[in-house]
Amino acid sequence: MDAIAPRVADFRRIWGRAPGLAVILVGDDSASATYVGRKEATARERGFFSRTHRLARDVEQAELLGLIEALNHDAAMDAILVQLPLPGHLDEAEILAAISPAKDVDGFHVVNSGLLVRGLPALTPCTPKGCMLLIREARSNLAGLNAVVIGRSNIVGKPMAHLLLSADCTVTVAHSKTCDLPVVTRAADILIAAAGRAEMVRGDWIKPGAIVIDVGINRRSGRIVGDVCFNEAQAVAGFITPVPGGVGPMTIACLLDNTLAAATAAATAKTR
């Protein structure tokens, strides 16, 4: 993550301003507030201009959409992030669609999703992007490897599958209706666990020497655990990410990388 600071310094020197990140936090969920605070602190430490807009849990849809529209037109803000999940009375799809694709630093807008599916340059969802960097750290050439993604969410599972396909992996997406899941995962050279079920993946589900990326964040008996039973899995896997301290920091690093990319694109566009 420290590698981004010199790039931010170069941006500030060339364009005379800091890349701007706007974060919208709705409600008072302690976990979300802690995560947003970590994002904001890390961004500022690396030279970004970051501002968090804290809204009441009962905020109306129109008010939130109005804030997003204002941020879309704010030249000081290159990136907009709406912290998920949102309260149930809000239409999440409409809110995410309201963010300008050029400022959609989370990569959730349908424009960026479509570009990702087509294999074209786009702002890529931060967690899958971070997972790919971790996988590349373990092995540079992924062509022909069997990859299994547990989970089919729009935030992690689906974009993760497309990134792995673009890396020439043979990809299986497993989910709650998948039959004989342990049999499926034992064939995986790369296993991504993003199901949201604490320590679901056991050691005997894993192929010896496999790359295991644990995206899960769950509370169990007062501690944070992933979707993989780490103590069992680390004895089998060739590479495994811990929880906490694995995917989480990489997600923040990729958020900052996307913010800098959006800022660079915006600044360059003004010179044309």
Explain how this protein is built:
The chain has 272 residues and is of the alpha/beta class. A hairpin with a 2-residue loop joins strand 8 (218-220) and strand 9 (223-225). The strands form 3 sheets. The chain has a 5-stranded parallel β-sheet with strand order 5-4-6-7-10. The protein has a 3-stranded parallel β-sheet with strand order 2-1-3, sandwiched between helices. It has 10 helices and 10 strands. It has 2 domains: 4-103 and 249-269, 3-Layer(aba) Sandwich (Rossmann fold); 126-241, Rossmann fold (3-Layer(aba) Sandwich), CATH 3.40.50.720. The protein has helices at 4-15, 30-45, 61-72, 92-98, 110-118, 126-138, 157-166, 181-185, 230-233, 247-269; strands spanning 20-26, 49-55, 79-82, 146-150, 170-174, 190-193, 211-214, 218-220, 223-225, 239-240. The radius of gyration is 19 Å and the shape is globular. Helices cover 41% and strands 16% of the residues. The model has no long low-confidence stretch (mean pLDDT 96).
Helix run count: 10
Distance between the termini: 31 Å
Do you know the CATH architecture of the largest domain?
3-Layer(aba) Sandwich
CATH homology superfamily of the largest domain: Leucine Dehydrogenase, chain A, domain 1
Strand order of the largest sheet: 5-4-6-7-10
CATH level 1 name of the largest domain = Alpha Beta
Given as residue ranges, the uncertain stretches (5+ residues, pLDDT < 50) are none
- Major sheet, described briefly? 5 strands, parallel
The overall number of domains is 2
The overall strand count is 10
Which geometry do the CA atoms define?
Answer: globular
